Amino acid sequence: LSICSRTVEPLEYYRRFLKENCRPDGRELGEFRTTTVNIGKCLCSITTADGSALVKLGNTTVICGVKAELAAPAVDSANKGYIVPNVELPSLCAERFRSGPPGEEAQAASQFIADVIENSQMIVKEDLCIANGKLAWVLYCDIICLDYDGNLLDASVFALLAALKNVQLPLVTINEETGLSEVNLKQKNPLIIRKHPVATSFAIFDDTLLIVDPTAEEEDLATGTVTIVTDEEGRLCSVHKPGGSPLTGAKLQDCITRAITRHKEVKKLIDKVIKSITPK
Predict the structure, then answer these.
(1) Spatial distance between the Cα atoms of 45 and 165, rounded to a whole number of angstroms
(2) Are 55 and 162 in contact (CB under 8 A)?
(3) Cβ distance 182 to 175 under 8 Å?
(4) pLDDT tens across 108-155, in order?
(5) Which of 64, 130, 161, 195 is buried deepest, with most CB atoms within 10 A?
(6) In a domain, 98, yes or no
(7) Angle at which helices 104-120 and 152-165 pack, to 10 degrees?
């Protein structure tokens, strides 16, 4: 197979590989790229964050920093804190992105992350309340893509979960005499994470063929994509399908089954890394 054919007719080039049940990068159709995660202060670039993580999915590299601040709860939800996710796709991560205000893809990714947090109940907002109607935590979750090579959503959900697992919040009380908040930095507690959502993305080729963990090139050539989010109980938290080829019920069920298997791999990886950085 010549390089020329990949440049001139990339789809035909891919189809030749797909017929042999493999991909140009050597992976099988159901094979994920090498996945690595680093958690915590080893990421010198964001030591100011209360929790941080860096995830690599093949060449796609995403960093997440979580910053916790104190604020008054909203009047209509006096017993809840806030979680504010934001996905950034700077021009440095790929030629397709431009400097300036967030583009459509970054906005869609931010909304997807917000939906995953809400639907999975990974963090219950009531757990972020310190004093009803008076004080609550706000978690600003900034997810920045450093290198884009497809499958942004899987990497972003993984980085968010790993960073949140790393957050330690100081003990905050309200002084009854003065009404002021008092922060005890010596006594810190981890966030209560109730569910561990993991995203698994697929590209659809020629309306029928499914491949997992697509690269940027594969996403461009695909006739559609679908992202399945599951938790540790195998519960379906979200199905994200932005247009493209329709999926039969059987194909969708196949995606969900594969997503549940992938969840176990990712959870095992996070647990292993957290164990390695936890003081004995």
Answers:
(1) 19
(2) yes
(3) yes
(4) 999 999 999 999 999 999 999 999 999 999 999 999 999 999 999 999
(5) 64
(6) yes
(7) 50
- What token pair was written down for 23? 């991909």
Residue 137 token pair: 């935590």
Which residues, other chains included, contact 40 with Cβ-Cβ below 8 Å and sequence gap of 6+?
51, 52, 53, 166, 277
Which residues, 6+ apart, have CB-to-CB distance to 88 below 8 Å? 102, 106, 142, 143, 144, 145
What are the pLDDT digits (tens) for 58-114?
Answer: 999 999 999 999 999 999 999 999 999 999 999 999 988 988 888 899 999 999 999
Does residue 257 sit in helix, strand or coil?
Answer: helix
**Which range of residues forms the domain containing residue 151?**
28-277
100-107: long-range contacts (C-beta < 8 A, 24 or more apart)? 105/152
Q: Answer yes or no: are the C-beta atoms of 233 and 206 closer than 8 Å.
A: no
Q: How many domains does the chain have?
A: 1
**pTM (2 decimals)?**
0.92
CATH of the domain at 227: 3.30.230.70
